[in-house]
């Protein structure tokens, strides 16, 4: 196992340091920033974290999981990166032929020279022993200039019209009536036109607005992901696996009475509860493939979690890995996450390809990390802006679970609710 050197610093104001760190990172060609925004989570390991400086990288084109497994086993170090939704094609006999504006590889990970971990007011820097410039980097971040968000002339245009969206929902419901699927996650893209913007400024504004527990700011050369995700895909702690799918959403209100009404509506919603139950069953099945007998457990079933702008129904499913199972196989057997596909999973993914108009790519994929002992933690890439700097293409995708009870107009409104954080930031809201 590779041993990193460690330095610690006490931060006077972690929030100010975070902003300076984000602006410092933007100068780098590759980085991964993860932030729980001080949301209570019994499984969280840090307040925020940044990894940068590429020591080694892994982005295999063939035999992807086997080659990545070899990479993990050979290096025994911290590894950061992403799984694209289109990795599904290497797990099942599937394809992705829709237009791709971002070209994130199916899998791309790197071993960083530097890892900055902030917990409470303590900054811990884990760094490669070949590097002796940690103090200089720390000083540069402290002296990093930041600028307020500069309002750009943003305009938003859906890739498909509302009429087309509603028509496709009807077609998907026909598949449900015929027994092809029980539930399907259907998404649409919103193209964002703009004059100019600074990705660090925009992420800071988005992150501060939404304060989501699994936010990430991710850069891979000219490609960016500005992610404000409320959802954990999967985490490993020793032999324990934790998955926390979301199904069910209601907006928050500044009015306490309206906010409580929205929360209670979510609690009593048979539609949302049934959607959540379907995905819980799917996740239980996925985890059971790599779990010890009788170890799959539903710790929480459709519990309401309240974040800054939305209420969500979240379930927590856990398991214990079989003794001879490689940790990466847990991901291989559960990816893509059920909350972003539907049930049955394979048929749902086939229909997603048929009815959606763009390749999902990194959207509904995952960003996260592996530790040297192969623990890991990955989010679900939703509530995200994707940006290709080279082509100047900026967009976001939102979607929802379609069931037999789905009202197409209400599903459309739910898409707008989920994109509220992004819409408000882009329109120079809070």
Structure described in brief:
The protein has 430 residues and is an alpha+beta fold. The protein contains 12 helices and 20 strands. It has a single domain, classed as Anthranilate synthase (4-Layer Sandwich), CATH 3.60.120.10.
General description of the model:
This protein has 430 residues and is an alpha+beta fold. The protein has a single domain, classed as 4-Layer Sandwich (Anthranilate synthase). 31% of the residues lie in helices and 33% in strands. It has a 20-stranded antiparallel sheet that branches. Strand 19 and strand 20 form a beta hairpin.
Write the layout of secondary structure elements.
Elements: E1 5-10, H1 14-25, E2 30-35, E3 48-58, H2 64-75, E4 79-83, H3 88-91, E5 107-119, E6 122-127, H4 134-142, E7 155-158, H5 162-177, E8 183-193, H6 199-210, E9 214-220, E10 223-229, E11 232-237, E12 240-244, E13 246-251, H7 256-268, H8 270-288, E14 297-306, E15 310-320, H9 327-332, E16 342-343, H10 345-355, E17 366-370, E18 376-379, E19 384-388, E20 393-402, H11 408-418, H12 420-426
Antiparallel strand pairs: 1-6, 2-3, 2-9, 3-5, 4-5, 4-17, 5-6, 7-8, 8-16, 8-20, 9-10, 10-19, 11-12, 11-18, 12-15, 13-15, 14-15, 17-18, 19-20
What keywords describe this structure?
31% helix; 430 residues; alpha+beta; Anthranilate synthase; globular; 20-stranded antiparallel sheet
Q: Indicate the CATH architecture.
A: 4-Layer Sandwich
Count of helices?
12
- Tally of DSSP β-strands: 20
Q: Which value, in Å, is the CA radius of gyration?
A: 21 Å
CATH superfamily: Anthranilate synthase
């Amino acid at each position: 196992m590779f041993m990193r050197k460690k330095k610690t610093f006490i931060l006077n104001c972690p929030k100010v340091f975070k902003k300076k760190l984000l602006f410092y990172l933007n100068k780098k060609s590759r980085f991964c920033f993860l932030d729980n925004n001080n949301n209570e989570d019994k499984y969280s390991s840090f307040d925020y974290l940044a990894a940068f400086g590429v020591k080694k990288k892994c982005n295999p084109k063939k035999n992807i999981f086997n080659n990545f497994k070899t990479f993990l086993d050979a290096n025994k170090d911290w590894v950061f990166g992403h799984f694209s939704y289109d990795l599904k094609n290497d797990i099942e006999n599937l394809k992705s032929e829709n237009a791709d504006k971002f070209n994130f590889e199916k899998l791309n990970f790197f071993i960083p020279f530097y890892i900055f971990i902030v917990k409470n007011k303590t900054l811990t820097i884990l760094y490669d022993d070949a590097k002796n410039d940690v103090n200089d980097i720390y000083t540069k971040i402290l002296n990093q200039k930041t600028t307020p968000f500069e309002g750009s002339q943003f305009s938003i245009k859906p890739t498909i019209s509302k009429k087309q969206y509603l028509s496709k929902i009807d077609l998907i419901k026909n598949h449900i009536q015929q027994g092809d699927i029980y539930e399907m996650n259907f998404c649409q893209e919103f193209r964002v036109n703009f004059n100019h913007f600074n990705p660090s400024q925009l992420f800071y504004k988005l992150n501060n607005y939404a304060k989501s527990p699994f936010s990430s700011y991710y850069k891979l050369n000219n490609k960016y992901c500005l992610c404000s995700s409320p959802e954990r895909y999967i985490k490993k702690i020793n032999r324990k696996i934790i998955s926390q799918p979301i199904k069910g959403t209601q907006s928050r209100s500044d009015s306490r009475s309206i906010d409580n009404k929205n929360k209670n509506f979510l609690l009593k919603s048979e539609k949302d509860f049934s959607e959540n139950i379907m995905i819980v069953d799917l996740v239980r099945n996925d985890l059971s493939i790599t779990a010890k007998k009788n170890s799959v457990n539903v710790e929480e079933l459709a519990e309401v979690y309240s974040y800054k702008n939305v209420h969500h129904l979240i379930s927590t499913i856990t398991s214990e890995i079989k003794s001879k199972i490689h940790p990466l196989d847990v991901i291989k057997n559960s990816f893509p996450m059920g909350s972003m596909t539907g049930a049955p999973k394979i048929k749902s993914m086939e229909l997603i390809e048929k009815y959606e108009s763009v390749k999902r790519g990194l959207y509904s994929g995952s960003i996260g990390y592996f530790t040297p002992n192969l623990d890991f933690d990955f989010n679900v890439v939703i509530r995200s802006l994707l940006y290709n700097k080279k082509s100047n293409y900026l967009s976001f995708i939102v979607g929802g679970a379609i069931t037999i009870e789905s009202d197409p107009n209400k599903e459309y409104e739910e898409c707008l609710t989920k994109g509220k954080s992004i819409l408000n930031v882009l329109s120079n809201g809070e």
